[in-house]
C-alpha cells in the first residue's frame, strides 16, 4: 500500500489552477491582452466582445508583432521578453513580465493568435484548445497582433457558473478599457460590443481628450487640473469639483508608472483632501497619473498586477493629498487656461451675448480631420496665450461644418463665411 500523500500535479491541472489566479473573468483577459498590445508599442487597439466576453473576445493592435518562433514560445508558461534575471523585477517599465497571461488564458479557452512583423509577408497563426497546441499555419494579415479567445471556461464549468450577467461582465470590460485609455491616451481605443461601437478614444496623447471622450464634455468642464511634484513623485491629471459626485470608487483611476492600480493610501489621500466638501455617501471623480522611480515600488505582489507596494506609503500619501488640495483651492483651475466667454471679442456674424459662460482649454479640441490640423494648432496656440476666443462649443460647431480655414495676409484664420476664429 502506497502511503505517500503528496504528488506532483499533471500539467493540465496545474495550468488550470494558475489560470484561476490570472483569469478571474472576461475583463481580466481583456486587460492582459491590452497590456501586451501596449508593450508592443502600438498606437491603435480594437477590442470586440460578444455576450460579455464569455463566448468571444478579440483584441487587435498595430504593434510590432512577433516572429514565428516567438509566437510559439509566447503560449508557453513563464516565457517572456520583459525580464532576463531576478534583478529585473525591481526596475520593470513594461506592463507584463511574468509570461503567464497567454498560457493562462489558453488553458481555459479556445485561443487563436495571428501575428506579423513588418519585415515578413505572411503572418503566423497559432490555435490552441484548453492549452494544447492545435494548429500552426500562415495567412495574410496586417502588421501587428490579433488574439481571439472563444468559449471561455468551456473546460472548467465550475468556474463558468460564477460569472455574472452579460451586462455586468460587459460593464467590467468597458470599465477597464476606459481606465487603460486614460493611462495610455496616446493610443486610440475602440470597443465593439455585440456588433456596436460603444467606446472610442482618439489617441491624441492628451489626457483631457480621453476624459471628454469617456465621460463627456460637460464632465470634463467640471475637472480641475492636478500638477504637482514632491519628494521625487510627479502627479498629473484631473479631479472633479466637489459638485461632481460619484457613487463608487470606480470613477477614480489611479495610474502609477503607466499601470492601473488600487491602493488604499492613495484612495485615503483623495478622501482626506476633499474632507468636508463631499457627503459621506459620495466619491470624487479623479484621474491621477503618478510617476515614481521603479525601484521605489514592488509590482509583483498581486496575481493580476492590480496592486503595488510602495517602499514608503506616507510619502506618497502626502504628495497626493497636497496635489489635490492645491487643485481644489483653485490654483490649477482648468478654466484659467482660457478667457471667460464674457470677455470674448465680437465676431462678425456671431452674437456673443448669448454664448455659454464656460470655456475650455485647447486640448479639448477634438481631431475632426487631418486637413484641419494646422487650423486646430493655430487655435490651440492662441488658447494657450489666454487670448479671448469663441467658447469651445462654438469652435467645434464651426469645425464640424468642414469649412476650410485659411489665414489672411495678417495671418488671421477665417472661415469662408468671413467669420473670424482668431
Question: Top keywords for this entry?
Answer:
422 residues; alpha+beta; 8-stranded mixed sheet; 5-stranded mixed sheet; 12 helices
Topology (SSEs and partners):
Layout: H1 11-22, H2 26-39, E1 44-50, E2 56-61, H3 68-74, H4 101-107, E3 110-116, E4 123-129, E5 132-139, E6 144-150, H5 157-160, H6 166-183, E7 188-193, E8 196-200, H7 207-215, H8 217-221, E9 223-230, E10 233-240, E11 245-246, E12 252-256, E13 259-261, H9 264-274, E14 283-284, E15 286-291, E16 297-298, E17 309-310, H10 313-328, H11 373-384, H12 392-400, E18 406-407, E19 413-414
Parallel strand pairs: 1-7, 12-15
Antiparallel strand pairs: 1-2, 2-6, 3-4, 3-6, 4-5, 7-8, 9-10, 10-15, 11-14, 12-13, 16-17, 18-19
Helix pairs in contact: 1-4, 2-6, 6-7, 9-10
Plain-language structure description:
- Helices cover 29% and strands 23% of the residues.
- It is an alpha+beta fold and 422 residues long.
- The chain has helices at residues 11-22, 26-39, 68-74, 101-107, 157-160, 166-183, 207-215, 217-221, 264-274, 313-328, 373-384, 392-400, and strands at 44-50, 56-61, 110-116, 123-129, 132-139, 144-150, 188-193, 196-200, 223-230, 233-240, 245-246, 252-256, 259-261, 283-284, 286-291, 297-298, 309-310, 406-407, 413-414.
- A hairpin with a 6-residue loop joins strand 3 (110-116) and strand 4.
- Helix 2 (26-39) packs parallel to helix 6 (166-183) and helix 9 (264-274) packs parallel to helix 10 (313-328).
- The strands form five sheets. Strands 5-4-3-6-2-1-7-8 form an eight-stranded mixed β-sheet, covered by helices on one side. The protein has a five-stranded mixed β-sheet with strand order 9-10-15-12-13. A two-stranded antiparallel ribbon has the order 11-14.
- It has twelve helices and 19 strands.
- It starts with 10 loop residues before the first helix and ends in an 8-residue tail after the last strand.
Amino acid at each position: 500500500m502506497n502511503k505517500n500523500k503528496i504528488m506532483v500535479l499533471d500539467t493540465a491541472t496545474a495550468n488550470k489552477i494558475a489560470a484561476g489566479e490570472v483569469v478571474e473573468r472576461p475583463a481580466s483577459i481583456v486587460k492582459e491582452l491590452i497590456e501586451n498590445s501596449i508593450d508592443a508599442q502600438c498606437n491603435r487597439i480594437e477590442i470586440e466582445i460578444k455576450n460579455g466576453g464569455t463566448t468571444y473576445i478579440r483584441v487587435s493592435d498595430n504593434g510590432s508583432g512577433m516572429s514565428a518562433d516567438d509566437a510559439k514560445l509566447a503560449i508557453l508558461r513563464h516565457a517572456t521578453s520583459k525580464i532576463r534575471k531576478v534583478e529585473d523585477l525591481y526596475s520593470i517599465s513594461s506592463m507584463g513580465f511574468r509570461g503567464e497571461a497567454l498560457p493562462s488564458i489558453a488553458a481555459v479557452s479556445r485561443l487563436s493568435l495571428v501575428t506579423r512583423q513588418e519585415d515578413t509577408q505572411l503572418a503566423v497563426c497559432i490555435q490552441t484548445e484548453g492549452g494544447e497546441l492545435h494548429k500552426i499555419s500562415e495567412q495574410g494579415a496586417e502588421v501587428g497582433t490579433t488574439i481571439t479567445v472563444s468559449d471561455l471556461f468551456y473546460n472548467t464549468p465550475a468556474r463558468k457558473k460564477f460569472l455574472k450577467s452579460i451586462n455586468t461582465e460587459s460593464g467590467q470590460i468597458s470599465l477597464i478599457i476606459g481606465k487603460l485609455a486614460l493611462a495610455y491616451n496616446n493610443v486610440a481605443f475602440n470597443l465593439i460590443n455585440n456588433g456596436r461601437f460603444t467606446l472610442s478614444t482618439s489617441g491624441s496623447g492628451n489626457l483631457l481628450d480621453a476624459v471628454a471622450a469617456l465621460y463627456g464634455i460637460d464632465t470634463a468642464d467640471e475637472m480641475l487640473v492636478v500638477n504637482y511634484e514632491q519628494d521625487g513623485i510627479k502627479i498629473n491629471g484631473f479631479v472633479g469639483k466637489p459638485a461632481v459626485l460619484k457613487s463608487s470608487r470606480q470613477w477614480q483611476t489611479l495610474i502609477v508608472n503607466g499601470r492601473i492600480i488600487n491602493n488604499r493610501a492613495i484612495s485615503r489621500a483623495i478622501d482626506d483632501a476633499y474632507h468636508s466638501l463631499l457627503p459621506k455617501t459620495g466619491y470624487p471623480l479623479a484621474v491621477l497619473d503618478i510617476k515614481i522611480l521603479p525601484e521605489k515600488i514592488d509590482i509583483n505582489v498581486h496575481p493580476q498586477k492590480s496592486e503595488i507596494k510602495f517602499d514608503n506609503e506616507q510619502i506618497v500619501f502626502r504628495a497626493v493629498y497636497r496635489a489635490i488640495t492645491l487643485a481644489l483651492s483653485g490654483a490649477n483651475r482648468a478654466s484659467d487656461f482660457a478667457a471667460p466667454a464674457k470677455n470674448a471679442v465680437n465676431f462678425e456674424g456671431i452674437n456673443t451675448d448669448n454664448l455659454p459662460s464656460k470655456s475650455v482649454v485647447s486640448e479639448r479640441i477634438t481631431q475632426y480631420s487631418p486637413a484641419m490640423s494646422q487650423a486646430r494648432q493655430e487655435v490651440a496656440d492662441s488658447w494657450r496665450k489666454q487670448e479671448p476666443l469663441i467658447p469651445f462649443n462654438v469652435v467645434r460647431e464651426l469645425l464640424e461644418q468642414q469649412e476650410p480655414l485659411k489665414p489672411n495676409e495678417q495671418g488671421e484664420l477665417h472661415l469662408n463665411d468671413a467669420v473670424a476664429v482668431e
